[in-house]
Structure formats: structure tokens, C-alpha cells
Amino acid sequence: MTALLETSDLTIRFGGLTAVDTFNLSIQEGELFGLIGPNGAGKTTVFNMLTGVYLPSEGTVHFREKLINGRNPVQVARMGISRTFQNIRLFDELSVLENAMTGAHQHSKLTIFDSLFRTPRHFREEQRQRDRAYELLEFMGLEDRAGLPAKQLPYGHRRKLEIARALATEPKLICLDEPAAGMNTGEKAELSALIRKIRDELNVTVLVIEHDMKLVMGICEKIQVLDYGKTIALGTPGEIQNDPKVIEAYLGGD
Hints:
Blueprint: E1 5-14, E2 17-27, E3 32-36, H1 43-50, E4 58-63, E5 66-67, H2 73-79, E6 81-83, H3 96-104, H4 112-117, H5 120-140, H6 155-167, E7 173-177, H7 185-202, E8 205-209, H8 213-219, E9 222-227, E10 230-235, H9 237-241, H10 244-249
Parallel strand pairs: 3-8, 3-9, 6-7, 7-8
Antiparallel strand pairs: 1-2, 1-4, 4-5, 9-10
Helix pairs in contact: 3-5, 3-6, 5-6
């Protein structure tokens, strides 16, 4: 079966440092896939190559059988890959609804003429974006806060809003970069359920980087482990938990 996302010998160097070395990844449509590893293992660097932020030094990235290499983040997003960030990046002065709407602009077909002269098509498109953004806020349980400035949201809800904005781009694959960072136990449990819901109800494939091992082991069906930019293990949560290389590199083995 053809993979939704596939990398071949993906490598990137910064000066004399090889941050990621011959990285191979294959994610099938509909999977909940985890990418884990110690700090500095290269996980976010991989995300940056998958989403067009970094251009690989060597190797290829294919999404839906199309080559991504050389495409910028906007082009990659239009192809169907969205992402969140370790550090939340919201427009704090805009409302919660307006933040979600910024993702929906991704597929707008308005012309400059439509925007300048506020044509009927402009108003139809704006309403479409508003409706879709509100649907996603309902999905996230944020609809009652739609009119609030984003800066007034508590931390866990800000994380959820960032995911809603990413989903508003209508992705086939969403890449979540440490979505549970800074969350308390209750918020993490809610996030776990939400990630499954994204896959099951929105039919979006999920790739997640996360340091919280309990969360990763609880939601991911397949996990790949990086250490010093190289893959050291790939398998089910049970296989990963019992892998000696993972125990040594990630779980504090002797």
C-alpha cells in the first residue's frame, strides 16, 4: 500500500553538524504515528523538513506520491500538511474565532478585486471561513469562547485553538509538535481523547512529537525513535517500551 507520507534517506547538515542522518519514515493514511527521542535528537528538525521550513541536504520527502523537496511552507500546507509548534503562535489580539479563521484562508479563491471592492463573492467566502472556523471550535469545545481575545484563554485552551487553526487548513496530515507541553494531567487526558477524535471523526492522519511517554504510548499505533539524528527503533508501543536501545537512550537505562 502506498504511504501517505514517505521519506527516503532524509539528511540535513548545519555547517559541520549532521542534525538528521538518513532518516526514513513511512506513514499510512489513517495512522496515529509517534516520533520520540531525547532532547536534541532531531525531532523538530524532521518536522521542519516535512513542512518546508528546512530544505534537506540530501534525501527526499514524498506526500501523496508528490515530491515536497523545495516547496515552501505555504505550498506544503496547500498540499495537505499542517502543523502546530512547540511554542504557541497565536494572534493574541484577535478573537478566538478570528484565529481559527486564519487557517481557513488557506484555500480562499478570492481575487484582489474581490477583496478591494468587497464583492458578493468576498462576503460568501468570508462567511464560509467563519462557519468552518466555528465548526472546528465546536469540535474543540471552544465555541463558548469564540468572541474572546485569544490572549484571555487559559494555556490548555490556547493549545487547542492552535490545533483548530491547523485543522482549518483542511489537512490530510497534521503534525503536532509537543502538544501536551505545559499541560496538567487532566488537560493531557483530554488532549489524548481529542487526538483520537481528530483521526477518527475528521479522517486526518496524525504525526505527533511528544516527550510525555504515557500520552504517546496511549494513543500512537506505531512509534519511531530518534537518537542523535538517527532512527534506533520502530514498532508498536509495546515493542518500543521493551527495546534495549530505547531504554538506554530515552528511558534512562544504564
